[in-house]
Every structure is written in structure tokens, then in C-alpha cells.
Amino acid sequence: MRARQFYFVAVAAFSLFAASGLYADFRAGDYSKPESELMRQLLPVSASTDSMYDAGQYPIYYPELAPGDGKDDVENHCELCHSPRYITMQPVMPAQAWADEVTKMRKTFGAPIPDDAAQRIIAYLGSHYTPETRKR
Amino acid sequence: MRNPQGAVSRRGLLKTFAAASAALAAGPILGTRAEAQQQSAAQQSAPEFTGPGGNPYWTSVGPYATYPQKAPLILLTDRPVQLETPRHFFMSTFTSNEAFFVRWHLPNIPNAVDLKTWRLRVEGNVQKPLALSFPDLTTRFRSAAIAAVNQCSGNSRSRLQPRVAGGQWGNGAMGNAVWTGVKLREILDAAGVKTGSVQVQFEGLERGLGPKGLGSNLFQKSLDLSNPVIDECIVAYSMNNEPLPMLNGFPARLVVPGYFATYWMKSLSAIRVLTAPDDNFWMKAAYRIPDTPRGATTPEDMKSGKVSTIPIARMPVRSFLISPDGSTKIPASFPVRLRGIAFSGYAGIKRVEVSTDGGAKWTEAPLGVDAGDYSFRTWSLDWAPKAAGRYQVAVRATDENGNIQPDEGVWNPGGYLWNKIERQEIAVGDAG
Predict the structure, then answer these.
(1) N or C: which end of chain B has fewer CB within 10 A?
(2) Beta strands at B309-311 and B112-114: parallel, antiparallel or unpaired
(3) Across the A/B interface, how many CB contacts are shorter than 8 Å?
(4) Distance (Å, rounded) from C-alpha B421 to C-alpha B296?
(5) What is the number of other CB atoms lying within 10 angstroms of the CB of residue A49?
(6) Is B51 in contact with A131 (CB distance < 8 Å)?
(7) Per-window interface: B 252-281 vs A, CB < 8 A
């Protein structure tokens, strides 16, 4: 009877170890990492044999901009020359640094942004992309 | 209460589980080590941005992205395209074309080029303007090849304190390739540079949408004709013995050995001999460094307006530990091979030294194959850490001119010329 009881204890204990992935000297079976986004493969292209060397289209990976007043102005004006990833890629910066960037885009690079829209863009960037305010 | 033969009573079952639970809670049992019972270290995705401190990671924090002719690379921006090379691609002397970093300035970059109509124009103050076809380049001239590092001026910009706006590169905006093409000097000689010429200007196929005459419309770079580097320049139509990927400047790009990549004009379409210094935005205002030791200055000095600037030129000496990268725990006494690369834009690599105590003691590391003064030079050093602990592995290179990597960062408004000694923490575990 005693031997039988020990047998049951041993089997149950082993089952618990197996379920928890804990073995004598290692841990296994932990697949609990939250799902990551997968990236689809690009298939090889069948190139033509004429004189045109074509790499195909380039993708746009549109980022999620912070919601708020001025987001429309960013989309309407900044995206003439560059995608909003130029904003989201930057480190968090003080509001004044963002104002300087917008001024550089207008004065140095000639971005055709009217004064009122520029003011809204400066206010938008300065309220969502600073060390204190940036969420993602 | 008597149990029927072979059956397990409820109480018996409870007792069994209680015993097992107690055994689990008791910790070491059946030789199980306490450490093995701890939860896995939760592996997290990179953050979406860094700052206001320096980016602490080897590369920038962007997601991986797929592009034509490219392995998945780290996305900085998508229009215009900027892609960074992940760390593990730097294990070898040469960087494969599919992994080579990408950096364009203006949105309208070529997706396709028709070689029937593409011409490289050689014009300006020359006796005989030329319009060279692709076969002209590959057959009319002698071919020349050089191994040379192409590094973005802003490589490692995300290290600067305070942070500066611009492409927030980690260390992966660099690559080394064998570039084959035609010596720029032979092309200039074929056109005949006339007296009174001072600079030669380079222009590629990329175009912007800004007003004509501004930097947002056209990207152009120039070099002084008196600069000895002119004789080392190659108009390369081959990269690692393959056609250039479209995103790296098909069908031909300028190679300026030792110089930062800003001069290495991609999808080259015009070579223009100038009689006056180029004053376009990309020479006069952008890609300039303070005329100070190491190009270093401060935000305060910049604001005061006293800092004079010069066009960026040669790359300061740098070195990197590529493997191990800190993601693998090394058992104590395990003989691990530390591996990496070094390069300098001034001369060949003379010496690479490695420290495993954060920079107190240095050991010279044997160097790999010498592919030329402007190439990556691999290095490796075997190391068997005696005891468990966290080790700071540091690496510093010295070039043949005696330039040695400093242990201080650099700050300038463009975020250029970073070459501080790199450090990597390596966790060494108890080997039992």
C-alpha cells in the first residue's frame, strides 16, 4: 500500500513538472511571448531582357501620427516632400527644436506652407513630440 | 473508509497534489536549480523612439522593412528611403549588396533606369563634352577597382547629446564593397579639363519637389580639382562584382575613397567642371562641420555665431565589436571569439586593441585580411572570462597615420563625425 501511494505521488509530481516545463536541469515549452507582427517575403521578380532595369515600386510604411489639432496640416503640407516617418523617426525634442525644423523647411527648403498652417504644425509637433508629451 | 482496490480516493488525490505542490514550492528538487525556475527574461520589442538621452542600442530602433533587391533592413524613413544595416552583417570584410544601407535626400528617386537612354554627361569647362553610355563606361575605358567603406556622414547620429534632428542612425549606416568602374581622372582627361577650372560637380537622377535653385529641388556635391582624392575617385558600375542595387545608385555611382558617403553621388548623371566654387545648398549650407579639432563644438558656441564651418571630408578612425552582441550569455571559462571590424578614412588600420574591463587594460587583437587602406579590416580576439559577472568590452583602433579613437563623444549641429570608443556589456554566467 505504501509503495502504491508513493507511485501516485511520483506520477502526479512528474505531470506537474512536465506541465510547468520544469525539468531536472532545464526549463522548456514557454511559448508565451506575445505575438509579433510578421513581415511578408517579397517574391523574386522575373526581369525583362530589354534595356529597362526596373526595381519595381517602393513601399510606404505609414506611421500612426498622434491625434490632435494640426495633424491634418502635417498631412497636407509636410508630405509634399517627405513621409511623416521623418517626424516619427526623430528623437523627442523640445518644442523650440520642432519650431526651428518647420522654419528650416519653409525658409531653407522653400516648403510652400502658409503662415497659419505653419503655426498649427509647430503647435502640433510641440505638443505631441517632446520629451514630456510623446506617447509612441 | 476503505478504498476499493486500485482506486484513488479524493483525499488521496488531494494529498498527492499537495505533496507535489510542496515539492515545487520547496525549490531545488531532483537537482532542479533555483535559477531554472525563474520566468524567462521577457524579450521586448524595440521602443518606437529614443531620447532625450542618447540611443543606447547598436542600431536605430526602427522596424524591419522589405525593399526591392534588399534583405530586411531597419527602416528609418520610407520617402525618401533611408534603411540601416543590422549589426550581424558586419561579420565579414565586405558587406553584401542586399544588406548595404540606403540613404536618399529627395523624394523622386529612380525606380527604373533605361540604359538605352541613360547617359553620363561630362560638361562645363571642358574641351569636349561627353555623353557616355553604359557600354562606353564598361568597354571604352580601362577598369579600375578599389575596396572602400561607404559611411553616411550622420552614422551614429542618435548618440549625440543633446540630440540633433536628422536621420537617427545607430552604427549601421556604413558598408564596405569592392567598387569597380572607371577612374574619374580618365573620364575628365577624355573630356579635357580647361584652364580656369576649380571644382568638379556631381549630380544624380534623384529629384525633389521644392523650388528650383533650392536644396529641396536638386542634390549636387562638388570636390576641388586640386584635391588629391580626385585621382582616387572611381565612377563605379559594379559593386561586389554585381550591378548596383537600384537603391544604392544603379547604374553608376561616384566612389570617393576615405570620404563620407555624401560625396558618393548615386545614379550619377552629370559630371560638371566648374570655374567657380559650388555654392549650392548641399555644399554651402549642408554637410558642413565646425573648423575645430574633431569638428566638435557646443550648442552655445553655435548660437554665438563664432563657429566657422568647412565641408565634411574624410572619415575619422572607427572600430566595432560585432560578435558577441550581448544577446548571448557566455559561460565562465568558455573560450569565446570576439570579432569585429575597423576602418579609417585617412590611412590603413595599424592596430586594434580590445579591453574587457571597460578600458583599463588593452590587448592588441590580430587583424584579418588586408583588402586595402580604405576597406573594413576585420579583427578577432579569443577571450575566456574566468568568473561570472558583467564585463564591459571596449574596442579602439589606430590608423597608420597615428589617429586613435578618443573616449569622448562629439557634438556638432549636423550630428557628424561620431567615433567614440564603442563599448558592449557581456554577461558571463556561472558555469556550474
Answers:
(1) N
(2) unpaired
(3) 168
(4) 16
(5) 5
(6) yes
(7) 281
What is the predicted pLDDT for the residue at B38? 52
CA dist A97 and B166 (Å) reads 12
Q: Are B247 and A55 inside 8 Å of each other by CB?
A: yes
| CATH code, A71-128 | 1.10.760.10
Does pTM surpass 0.80? yes
* CB count in 10 Å sphere of residue A50: 10
> What is the least distance, in Å, from the CA of A9 to any CA of chain B?
5
Q: Which of residues 168-227 of B touch A (CB under 8 A)?
A: 168, 208-211, 214-217
Cβ contact B384:B333 at 8 Å: yes
Does B52 sit within 8 Å of A42, measured CB to CB?
no
Where is B255: in which H helix or E strand?
strand B253-255
Domain edges within chain A = 71-128
DSSP B358: S
B24 touches chain A (CB under 8 A): yes
Of B19, B49, B68, the CB nearest to A91: B49
Task: Give the separation between CA B289 and CA B414, rounded to whole angstroms.
Answer: 7
Which residues are registered as beta bridge partners of B255? B234
What CA–CA distance (Å, rounded) separates B395 from B410?
18
pLDDT score of B13 more than 70:
no
Query: Pick from A24, A52, A57: which is nearest to B32 by CB?
Result: A24
Closest to A16 measured CA to CA, from B35, B15, B40, B16 = B16
- pLDDT tens, per residue, chain A with 136 residues: 566 776 776 666 666 656 667 888 999 988 887 777 788 888 888 899 999 999 999 999 999 999 999 999 999 999 999 999 999 999 999 999 999 999 999 999 999 999 999 999 999 999 999 999 999 8
Query: For residues A74 and B271, what is the distance between their CA atoms, to the nearest angstrom?
Result: 37
Mean pLDDT of chain B: 93
Q: Strand B218-224 vs strand B234-239: parallel, antiparallel, or unpaired?
A: unpaired
Q: Tell me what ipTM this predicted complex has.
A: 0.88
Please give the sequence-ordered ranges of beta strands (E in DSSP) within B335-376, or none if there are none: 336-343, 349-355, 363-364
Which residue is closest to A132 within chain B, CA to CA? Answer: B52
Q: Determine contact: B133 vs chain A, CB below 8 A.
A: no
Domains by residue range for chain B, with CATH: 109-154+176-286 (3.90.420.10), 318-429 (2.60.40.650)
d(CA A135, CA A68): 13
Per the model's pLDDT, the better-predicted residue between B402 and A30 turns out to be B402
CB-nearest partner of B165 from A12, A93, A131: A93
Buried/exposed B352-375: b ≥16 CB within 10 Å, e otherwise:
bbbbbeebeebeebebbeebbbbb
**Which of chain B's residues have a Cβ under 8 Å away from the Cβ of A24?**
30-32
